[in-house]
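Bumping with the actual sequence this time:
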Amino acid sequence: MTKPLLAITMGDPAGVGPEVIVKAWQEPRVHEACRPVVFGHPAMLVKAVSLVGGAQNIAELVDLDQIDDSLFGPETILCLPVGNDDLLEVPAGSPVAGPNARTGQAAYDAIVRATDEALAGAVQGIVTAPISKSALHAAGHRQYPGHTELLADRCGVDDFAMMLYLPPDEVPDCPAGLGVVHVTLHMALREVFGHLTAEAVCAKCGLADRVMREGFGLAAPRIGVCALNPHGGEEGLFGDEEIRLIAPAVAQAQSRGINATGPYPTDTLMGRARDGEFDAVVAMYHDQGHIALKLLGMHRAVNITLGLPIIRTSVAHGTAFDRAWQGTAESSGMVAALLTAAQLAFVE
């Protein structure tokens, strides 16, 4: 079987994206699993190779039809140039003057190009390095709170979700790994309550069930659904969302053949999931899912966008401007994102 061709978007060039890409490129498992191509400015890769002491050559491509399979391997980084030369003038690392529109535009251009290539079938998936949401907005793309919403818009889908995923080697009692899907995502906490509906919770149960079945091969994934309030609301004493919204959503999901149960208090649910009782968890808001899963495996967590017609994974960390371009960035998350995308592409 031909190894999948995966597009890696560089993310914000002033952040850790170029560095973690170059470091991940040195990992033999990446090249055993896929054929990666970077979408971004090749000069940033040259600088990153020099920074980390790598020995890779940078091979610039005119288009994907130009790819020669003999070039793939740890020694050569294939790069499809995206981004204007003016971003090279932006200081690396923490943007002293605030978010930079030039790096934001470069990140946007790479995402759009890679997404379009995936939609056209030219690549089998995309793996994204972190972007700065503030830089994205500074470049004029204020309608997108982040990667997930931009990708959904470009793909023309309304039913989508972010899943944070830990591979099986990070959670040994979970044979297919452990995923956490979020009902609400990039919004202020005060806005969460207005966006929680039974329909939204049920839909995310469906997305969790689908990816664990189709992407990771489970016949009947076990989905644990988080409560929203402390102690699951204590029968309405601390809030009634569990009674009004979440329990009816779980019942609705069950009526559709989804093995969902809950709502469960989150402080105990994630421990139960780690110990193998559940294959995926549905969280009500961003930090409810992120904090718990990142405590289990911060550096190797993978972001998977569900509901897209393409495969997209990402590192689960940000641009780390304060640590960027110092040669110390952790690259295991990029390795995990590439391996997960390759696995999903093979299943597809």
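The tokens above came from a reply further down the thread. The first helix runs from residue 17 to 25.
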